[in-house]
Automatic annotation (TrEMBL):
Gene3D superfamilies (UniProt xref): Ribonuclease Inhibitor (3.80.10.10)
Key word Repeat present: yes
One GO CC term on file: plasma membrane
GO BP terms in the entry: monoatomic ion transmembrane transport
Signal peptide positions (record): 1-25
Annotated Gly residues bias: 159-171
Subcellular location: Cell membrane
Pfam families: LRR_8
Protein name: Leucine rich repeats and transmembrane domains 1
Record's bilayer topology term: Single-pass membrane protein
Species for this entry: Hucho hucho (huchen)
Residues spanning the membrane: 189-220
Keywords (A to Z) from UniProt: Cell membrane, Disulfide bond, Ion channel, Ion transport, Leucine-rich repeat, Membrane, Repeat, Signal, Transmembrane, Transmembrane helix, Transport
Occurrences of domain LRRNT (ranges): 25-59
């Protein structure tokens, strides 16, 4: 005979949906390319890493979102990732085990975030990394390695394999060391001091000579003015005596 399978009740359907693992699909708002295995979630206003991604995803673009932190094994759902772009978010903290399991990661961008510190163990298990971009951050410690990285405001942009990062999983690259100041040549310093002293002495002597000359010139001019005034007064006195004698002579005549 024919056995009819009764329809499942709503309660049983809900129970099965809770027990069965969630289906792996493209996250809401993202664009997924099944052929190239690229997941594009840029500019979606995300606050966290999307969950339940396809495990064969090769590229994950999460730039231009609002992600603030990366927890432990944040990308455990996508172990085959080769490209991970987290630029232009608000990331302030990254767990040392964030990238655990991503042994094939080749390109990583954490540019334009708010990073202040990165643990040297972050890139420890990754042997294939060839491109690391840490530009435009505020970090002040990158751990101990043999490379260098582009930091906040560096005009050269992202760091590639040929630009100082050799991969190898030795940890994060550190900032370029400051150049040591050159030792001062003692003879050169003494000669500079002597020349400066001689020049200053000559200038002072010239200023003193100018002051003496100015005082002497002022004294001579004052003396000349006094003599000129005295001679004018004498000439006026002579003219007055001549005027007094003239009427007297006219009266006698």
């Amino acid at each position: 005979g024919i056995t009819l399978i009764p329809l499942l009740s709503p309660s049983v359907s809900i129970l099965l949906s809770l027990l069965l693992p969630p289906s792996l699909s493209c996250p809401k708002g993202c664009v997924c390319d099944g052929r190239t295995k690229v997941v594009d979630c840029r500019g979606r206003g995300l606050y966290d890493i999307p969950r339940h991604l396809q495990p064969d995803t090769l590229e994950l673009h999460l730039q231009d979102n609002r992600i603030r932190g990366l927890g432990s094994m944040a990308f455990r759902d996508t172990p085959l990732l080769r490209v991970l772009d987290l630029s232009n978010n608000s990331i302030t903290s990254v767990s040392p085990s964030t990238l655990l399991g991503l042994r094939g990661l080749q390109r990583l961008s954490l540019a334009s975030n708010a990073l202040r510190e990165l643990d040297r163990r972050l890139l420890g298990p990754i042997r294939s990394l060839s491109h690391l971009d840490l530009s435009h951050n505020s970090y002040n410690y990158l751990g101990h390695t043999h490379g260098n990285a582009h930091g906040n405001g560096n005009p050269h942009g992202p760091l590639g394999m040929g630009e100082g990062y050799g991969g190898g999983g030795s940890g994060l690259p550190e900032c370029e060391p400051k150049q040591r100041p050159r030792p001062v040549n003692l003879r050169h310093a003494i000669a500079t001091v002597i020349v400066t002293g001689v020049v200053c002495g000559i200038v002072l002597m010239m200023m003193l000579a100018a002051a003496v000359y100015g005082c002497a010139y002022a004294a001579l001019m004052a003396k000349y003015q006094r003599e000129l005034k005295k001679s004018e007064e004498t000439s006026k006195g002579d003219h007055g005596s001549a005027d007094e004698k003239e009427p007297l002579e006219n009266a006698i005549a």
